[in-house]
């Protein structure tokens, strides 16, 4: 944001020239009303998401806007959840290799062609999806589609390049081990979904990466990179018809000729109330994550749980406001120096989820912070007020709109929605769902998922003060007379 220069005026007349006349109360009221109307109009006037399904099952979706740039990407229903213990890490390895050349554009030729457009290519892998996307000028959209199709169906997976990337991935794994937030959440998945595919890390294990062969990667791509499991999404200054035409021209190779979904339905990953503790008194801070089983992506309870998380709020020592923050838990954290930071989360998958909170604290504050955090959960279940819910809904609306700032975020929103929900849910519908939430709904839904449930707990660092599991389990309900 550009800084505004401030001039000092030595008189009232000078200040009036700089800042203009003070608006009347009537004008201020009109401005407020116009702002409120603009929000409502914005929801109604959002560009329509157009979706076309090709004969091979590939879904092509786009949102057109008057922008000089666009983002085009392929979202694939594939990730670490689709791996077995021996091949865990294959999806992450494929993501690395996909950006290192294709059969048509070997070696660095692929990267050079992307750079010649002045475009930006990126990708990521999660537990249930893999994505590759290009941000470029709108006029270069057809070329971006061609590059993406080449990347997905003609990835070279050369042995020599694999050895180079193997070294890179192993180094990344070492660096990730030093990120205690990621380590804590990997442990949380491992204990919550132990013995199932959701317990796998996205990146895989060191032993698996060392043993991974080209055959493993080829098998993974051939199995999962199928047209019915893909969404070609685009946002920005593009035409949906041109996008569909480009898709018909380029997404027609062998991986896209099969109309059937060759991957069997995933077995349910059952949640287990249990814990993992990795005590290391040499670390300065303790990382604790506690979660109960939440709903899957399509469950309407997610909206209510997101409002509940907004009631709890989040906190970091770098935040301003101190003990005057609206979050009760943040106020307690400031007044009693309970933690360095805390944040609630609602992580969803196709048929299950993790609803919980994570905090970082000094070793001697672990017990007090856990007591207050669990107490806040119990308060959500029993005594949430309408004023708290109103504030939380406003916060959630703001966060919802902020997520769609820029073509890349919109494109990702489109691709993810079609994979998770089968359609793009418009902002107007999200706003209506949020508006329908009241304090009673929050209390009822939180009681359904939290009250008297067995939690999963992951703790890393100097955690001697963390009480045993049975004591933490007993704080998941209140004895009321």
UniProtKB/TrEMBL annotation:
GO molecular function ontology, one term from the record: metal ion binding
Sections of the chain in a coiled coil: none
Membrane topology: Peripheral membrane protein
Chief place of localization: mitochondrion
Domain (Peptidase M16 N-terminal) ranges: 59-205
InterPro entries for this protein: Metalloenz_LuxS/M16 (IPR011249), MPP/UQCRC_Complex (IPR050361), Pept_M16_N (IPR011765), Peptidase_M16_C (IPR007863)
Matching Pfam families: Peptidase_M16, Peptidase_M16_C
PANTHER family in the record: CYTOCHROME B-C1 COMPLEX SUBUNIT 1, MITOCHONDRIAL, METALLOPROTEASE
Protein family according to the UniProt entry: Belongs to the peptidase M16 family. UQCRC1/QCR1 subfamily.
Name the record gives this protein: Cytochrome b-c1 complex subunit 1, mitochondrial
Species the sequence originates in: Spizella passerina
Gene: Uqcrc1
